[in-house]
Structure formats: C-alpha cells, structure tokens
Amino acid sequence: MPKGYQRPSTLVERPWHFCPGCNHGIVHRLVAEVIDEMGLQKETVGVGSVGCGVFSYEYFNFDGIGPSHGRAPAVATGVKRVLPDRLVFTYQGDGDLAAIGTTEMVHCAVRGELISIIFINNTLYGMTGGQMAPTTMMGQVTTTTPRGRGQAQGHPFRVCEMLATAEGAAYVARTAVYSPAQVVRTKKAIRRAFETQMAGLGFSLVEVLSACPTNWGMNPLEALKFVEEEMTPVFPLGELKVPEGVK
Amino acid sequence: MSEPILMKGNEAVAEAAIAAGCRYFFGYPITPQSEVLEHLARRLPEEGGAYIQAESEVSAINMVFGAACAGARVMTASSSPGISLMQEGISYIASAQLPAVLVNIMRGSPGLGGIHPSQADYFQSVKGGGHGDYKLVVLAPSSVQELIDHTVLAFEIAEKYRTPVMVFGDAMMGQMMEPVFLPEAEPAPIDRSWATTGMKNREKPNIIHTLYLPADDLENHCQRLFAKYREIQRQEQLHTAYLTDDADILVVAYGIMSRVARAAVEMAREDGIKAGLFRPITLWPFPDQALFQAASHAQAVITAEISMGQMIEDVRLAIKDKVPVELFNRIGLVPNPDEIYEAIKKKAQEVKVSA
C-alpha cells in the first residue's frame, strides 16, 4: 500500500533552484499532480518561459519547450495547431506574460486558442533581481522603483480582468497558495483550465499570486502574509469565467 | 510532364509549399507579400492543414517555432520590415536546430521604405540579423519557376540539416506572372524522433530549448552548430556561370538582377566586349571559390545590386582583391539591361579591353 503523499510521476526528482519560501515549487507540483490525475503525462507538451520559470522543462517529466521571452503563447499555438489532441500549456511569470508577452497573451485569448496559461504573479521580475513589473502595486518598492511605484510608473495590470472580456477566453481564474485551502483551490483551478482545453471549450488561464521573499526582503512567512493582506485587495481571488462544461 | 500554368510569384511560392508537403503557415499581411498569405488561407484548410493570420510577425515566427517543435513541415513569408521583426525568432530556431522555411519578398527600405523591388536585406539575412553565432541558408531564385523550385529545395535543406532556410524574392518576382510547372513529388519525410509531440511511447521526454548556462555547454553547442554549417558550406553551394571562362569584365548579380545582367552581358558580347556573368544562387553559403575561378581572367568586376552595395563585400572577399570591384546599383526599381551594359562598356574602356 503506497503512502499517502507521493511525488507525482510527472515531476522529476531533483532539487528546486528556487529560493527558500518561493511559491514556484508548489505550483510546479500542482501542475504535475493534475496531469498525473488526468492521465495525460504522455499527451502533454509544456512550454516554459524566461524568468524564474525558465527551467520548468527540467522539472517536468513530459515533453517541454524553452521559448524566447514572452512568446510562449505563440509557440504553444504552433504546437497545438499541429497536435490538436495534446494538452498544451505555458508556464509564465508576470514579466514574461504581462509585459513583453502581452500581445501574444491577448491574441491567444482573443483567438480562443485551445491552450492553457499558468501565470505566476509575484509583482516583480524575480530572476533579474527584483525590478518593477506591470503587476507591481502602487507604492511598492522594487529595484527600479526605489521610491515606490508612483503615477509616473503607471498602475498595476490586472491580466485576468482584461482577458475575461475576450469571447475566446473560456476559463479565467485568479488563485493563491498562501494557505493549504488556497493551494487546494489553485489545484482545482488548474484542473478546470486543463479540462476546458481538452473539452475544446476555449482559451484558459490561471493566475497564481505568488510569494517572492528574496526580492521582497521578507522571510517566507512574512511573504505569505503579504500575498494575503497586500496583494489580494489589488488582485481579487476567484473564478472570473467558468464554461458550462466544467462546472 | 503536365502543361505549364501561368502563376504570380507569390501564389507560386504558396502552391510550391503545398506541393512540398507543407501544411502549416503562420504569417501577417504586408505588401508585396500578401498573396502568399491569402492563397494559403484558402488552400491550407482544403489540404487538411492549419493557417493562422498572426497578430504580428513576432508572433508568426514563434508559431513557426512551435509548429516545428511539434514536428511539422512549416513555413512563413513576409517582406523586409516584417522579416526584421522575425529576427529574434530566427536566432532561436537556428539555435534550437529546427527546420523551417522563411520567404522574404523584399521591398524598399530602410524604415518603411516603399513597396518597390529591393535586394537590401542581404546583410540582414546573409550575415545574421538575429543575435548570436548562427547561419541562415539563403537561396536567391531569379524567376517564378525558381521561386517554386527553391521553395521545395529550401524544405529539403532545412530538414536535412535541421536549420532555418530563407528564400529571397523581391517585389517584382512576387508580383509578376510567368508560366511554370509545379513539382509532382514532395521531399521524403525525415526522422523527427527529436520533436516535442507528447511522449506517447517514449520513456524519456524530448526537450527543445536554447539555454546553455555552463560556459562549456554553450561552447560545445556553438561548435556543434558550426560543424553543421561547415558541412552545409561543403555540400550546398549553388551558382551559375555564364560566359565567364574568357570574360574580361565579370558581372556578379543574383535574383532578378541576374536576369537583367545576363541580357546586358549578351549586349556586350555582341559589341565584342568579353563580358561574363557569375550568379550566386546560395547567398549563404556564398560560392566564393567558384567565383574566384570565374574571375580568373577578369580585368574588372562589377556587382549589380538593388541596394547600396551589400553582396559586393562578399565578392571582394572571394576574389581576394585581385582586380577592382565596382558597384552598379539602382534603388526602388529593376534597371534596364542598357544601364548595366553601359556600365560594362565604360569599365571595358577604362581597363582597355573594349573591342
């Protein structure tokens, strides 16, 4: 009888390169668990990104592609049009998706492309050392907003709210992983996104609010509290769009 | 063989791709290339393929990247400003060692330039364009029939070496009509066991990426790429030489310009001037040794280009400055043969080889 808590077979056994307290590892694991449970390991093509998620193909035990910065949704589109019965998803951070890759993201949703995007929002560029991202909150200090983000640097970009207006977007949800209950909700959202895709219902995206203790200058517990108390008022949690087929 | 049919260059490229077994096309409208896109938008669904009009050339080239990863025979086409936007993607496709065919129906430039015929993207494509150490195979057809033949050849070379190949057209070749034959057989399928298709029966995942953080890994990767490029240089150079054996004045021209230059060489010969034409067909790999041979008798070399002089640098390198190399050029149009003939005649008088 196997013990209750096992490594998903689609997750390679290797140490994370992520910083202590980073939430990327949790989200990687949730993606792997869902693919395991849906029995899709051999039917999946994952498309990574540039940033802290750049090594996703080294952690997942299924076919993977490392695209250029921000272009993952276009690359995933090319894969999906050739292999329409496969599960094709991208794994992108907020610099990759919400700044340089905005065009690719928006038009993928507008086309109703049958892919899923897992979007990690930690309010800044993690890999390059904590610069402002489009998702940086007002007043938030980053290495490129040393006096806090002000009017001159614009306002935080709410990706889910914008994409929910696209008719091609079928499933859009924002979740977090700061507590066990939120982790469970995130896993359910990822499953619904993948089910939306495999049922051919349209484009799907799950935004996961994620802690970056290193670049926030916090310990891991403070960082989780920051997600819950500071981020969720700016980026409200919930399912913005759920198609009939997956309710 | 079947009867010839009259086709416009851009439509010929599109039909050639279908005849070559390409079923996936991702592009963006731009004059003077748009008929490639329009034709494939109609034809690919009929052939069971897929076509997307992307939101930009940046997206189009990355859809090509994705489709190539998935193991498809895939193509895009654009014109100069659009090809500029694709340069990032071309660097990634080359580094990831993916086969893909890219067509550039060149137009006037720099900037928005114009929609006239042009050859001003030689530096961009032959010398790089995107970042880093890579090479792009560049084919330069000179007729609508060659646009077809070279599109098929481009798929063969792309798949044989797992590398991107570009076909150079220009606004005139894209828009003009000529009688052509379509190919009857498509290139044989290649082994694509490397493709990211989902593991299916494989035990290990396929990974396609371009990141080599350890310095040794990056150096080895570049060495592997360049071993492949040296093999392409050995195997794939193409050119034609016309009346070069005894040529005092050698004209070097490619693409549409080579047809005009050939007429000018014939005019010069009728006047008793020993002129010849060397036409590179592969711009990279550049047929430098063949050009060196073709220039062995020459007292002067003229490169004829629809640019401010780009291929001329490769011509000078190839003939090792043995004789003077001068530029004949026009911008925004394909010149008449008379203009090149006058340049040949003037040069013949200067080097005292005129009849």
Question: Can you describe what's shown?
Answer:
The complex is a heterodimer of chains A (247) and B (355). Chain A is of the alpha/beta class. Chain A has a single domain (24-246), classed as Thiamin diphosphate (ThDP)-binding fold, Pyr/PP domains (Rossmann fold, 3-Layer(aba) Sandwich). Chain A contains nine helices and nine strands. Chain A has helices spanning 24-38, 56-59, 72-82, 94-100, 102-111, 159-163, 180-198, 213-216, 220-234; strands at 44-47, 63-65, 87-93, 116-121, 124-125, 131-132, 169-176, 203-209, 238-241. In chain A, the strands form two sheets. Chain A has a seven-stranded mixed β-sheet with strand order 2-1-3-4-8-7-9, sandwiched between helices. In chain A, strands 5-6 form a two-stranded antiparallel sheet. In chain A, helix 1 packs across helix 7 (180-198) and helix 4 crosses helix 5 (102-111). Chain A is globular and about 50 Å long. Chain A starts with 23 loop residues before the first helix and ends in a 6-residue tail after the last strand. The mean pLDDT of chain A is 96. Chain B has helices spanning 9-19, 34-46, 57-69, 80-85, 87-95, 122-126, 144-161, 171-175, 215-235, 256-270, 288-294, 311-319, 337-350, and strands at residues 5-8, 24-27, 50-53, 74-78, 100-106, 137-139, 164-170, 177-180, 207-208, 239-242, 249-252, 275-280, 282-284, 300-305, 325-329. In chain B, helix 3 packs parallel to helix 5 (87-95) and helix 11 packs across helix 12. The mean pLDDT of chain B is 97. Chain B contains 13 helices and 15 strands. In chain B, strands 3-2-4-5-7-6-13 form a seven-stranded mixed β-sheet, with helices on both faces. In chain B, strands 10-12-11-14-15 form a five-stranded mixed β-sheet, with helices on both faces. Chain B has two domains: 5-235, 3-Layer(aba) Sandwich (Rossmann fold), CATH 3.40.50.970; 239-350, 3-Layer(aba) Sandwich (Rossmann fold). Chains A and B meet through strand 1, strand 2, helix 3 and helix 5 of A and helix 3, helix 5 and strand 9 of B. Strand 2 (63-65) of chain A pairs parallel with strand 9 (207-208) of chain B.
